[in-house]
Amino acid sequence: MKLSSKQWMKQLVVVMLAAMMLTLAACGNATGNTNNSSSGGNNAAQQGETNGQATNQGNEQAEGDADSSAAATTYPLTVTDATGTEVMLEQQPEAIVTLVPSETEIAFAVGGGERVVGVDDYSNYPEQVASIAKVGDMTTNIEAVTALEPDLVLASSSMNGEAITKLRELGLTVYASDPLTYDDTVAHIEQVAVLLNTKAEAQDVIDNMKQVKQDIVTKLEGVEKRKAYLEFSPGYTVGSGTFLDDLVTTAGGINIAAGQPGWYEVDSEAVVEQNPEVIIYPDFGEEQSSILAGIMSRPGWDAIDAVKNDRLVMVANDPLVRVGPRLVEGLQDIAAAIHPELFQ
């Protein structure tokens, strides 16, 4: 589908916003102080686990009677989220608002979709969200959220910082997350299933994500890693401390930009020197990719192996920039881009 110039600019702004948020997250600003949501966005992170154990690498802890092996959650339930805040649920939440697309997708994937009463403007999956009330784009509409009277708001600590603070001041229950890896994302999905009392419904999603990763890792045993370069926003690449870097590593690649944390502006000469074997960029729905055009126009890049060997691979954008259930598709796409002989 061809995007209009207005739609493309909106997509670009969203991805650039996500890039900035990732940089902040990578620098340790987990709680953030922004009030943003993103189409690809909550591009920074989230995670979780259950049964009173530490989750999100110590940032999320469940302290209630929920048993990770049980189908039902016992309320009241107290958990500690990525902001270090204890979140108390007196009973199963029946009205849920999500502030970033990944949380929307998670809520639906784990079986809580019918209870979602509000979503951010960029949530576009699954298709049912089209008819759900919208609560703002990069700036959360606090009034719109409160009007829906949610008993649980799911947010990103790195992208919704200001909104989280305001909503909590108004007495709303907000659970914030911040996953930085694929495994963190799976754990966070498990945690949301516990919060919503949908552990049984979520199990297939969770098991599939774990199995797909294990299958990829097994198939890559003994296979030489290949140097890869990612450009998911024009002129910007992604470094260490991000879930995209984690995906590249898991998929048998070496992220040539891992020398710096977060998202940062491309150093053209450094990329030429690193000489990646594959270049990966997103599909924004444009008739002609602006990112690809930029890559092909840079001086000296015609000498890069990936360019010489036509190993410039376009992948679906949303599954790779949303830390939710479709990240499994993103991992598969990255693996196929780096090792097509094994995964295509």
TrEMBL record:
Q: SUPFAM superfamilies this protein is in?
A: Helical backbone' metal receptor (SSF53807)
Instruction: Spell out the family assignment given in the record's similarity comment.
Output: Belongs to the bacterial solute-binding protein 8 family.
UniProt entry keywords in alphabetical sequence = Signal
Q: Where is the composition biased (Polar residues)?
A: 49-60
Query: What's the superkingdom here?
Result: Bacteria
Q: Which residues form the signal peptide?
A: 1-25
CDD domains associated with the record: YvrC (cd01143)
Q: Where is the composition biased (Low complexity)?
A: 34-48
Residues of the region (Disordered) are 34-70
Q: Which residues cross the membrane?
A: none
Domain Fe/B12 periplasmic-binding, residue spans: 95-342
The scientific name of the source species is: Paenibacillus montaniterrae
Q: Name one GO biological process term.
A: cellular response to iron ion
Q: What is this protein called?
A: ABC transporter substrate-binding protein
